[in-house]
Amino acid sequence: MGPGRSARVFAIAVTVLTVLSSGYFTVSGLLAPGILVPGGDAAAPRAFAAYMAARSIVLLGGLALFAALRAWRPLALVLALNAGVQSVDTVIGATRHEVAQTLGPACFVLLLGAAAWSLARAPLPRHAV
């Protein structure tokens, strides 16, 4: 047994949405960080954006890989890890009093968390116990 069809479809949809939206910010941060934040085109912010992009690429790559392989347990873990990242992003947005940078990640926390939970709560296959 594994996760039900609706849990799998929901997790795949959340994965695609996350890869597209976070991928956009990752690429934007690499190519033109000044578009995302004022002063982002200076050397230090560009280097920082590159380091952050490396981490995003690994997490987003894991999401895409596990979704493509239909590896539901690992996908649930990476969805939960991404929810953790978005939680920190929510706190950062809130401390800076930026509504969009607070509400956007908060919505992703809910979606990613729900997708991870829906996959993780499914019983393990009999041979895996």
User: How many strands, which pairing sense, and closed or not: the largest β-sheet?
Assistant: none
**Structural classification:** mainly alpha
* Percentage of residues assigned to helices: over 70%
The helix-strand sequence is: HHHHH
Strand content: under 5%
Protein name: DUF4267 domain-containing protein
Organism: Nonomuraea rhodomycinica
Keywords: Membrane, Transmembrane, Transmembrane helix
Key terms:
129 residues; mainly alpha; 81% helix; elongated; transmembrane helix; membrane; transmembrane; DUF4267 domain-containing protein
Structural description of this entry:
- Helix 1 (5-31) runs antiparallel to helix 3 (43-69) and helix 4 (72-95) runs antiparallel to helix 5 (99-120).
- The chain has five helices and no strands.
- It is elongated, with a radius of gyration of 16 Å.
- The chain has one domain (5-33, 44-120).
- The protein has helices at residues 5-31, 33-36, 43-69, 72-95, 99-120.
In brief, what are we looking at here?
With 129 residues, the chain is mostly helical.
Provide the fold topology:
Elements: H1 5-31, H2 33-36, H3 43-69, H4 72-95, H5 99-120
Helix pairs in contact: 1-3, 1-5, 3-4, 4-5
Organism: Nonomuraea rhodomycinica
Transmembrane segments: 9-36, 48-68
Protein name: DUF4267 domain-containing protein
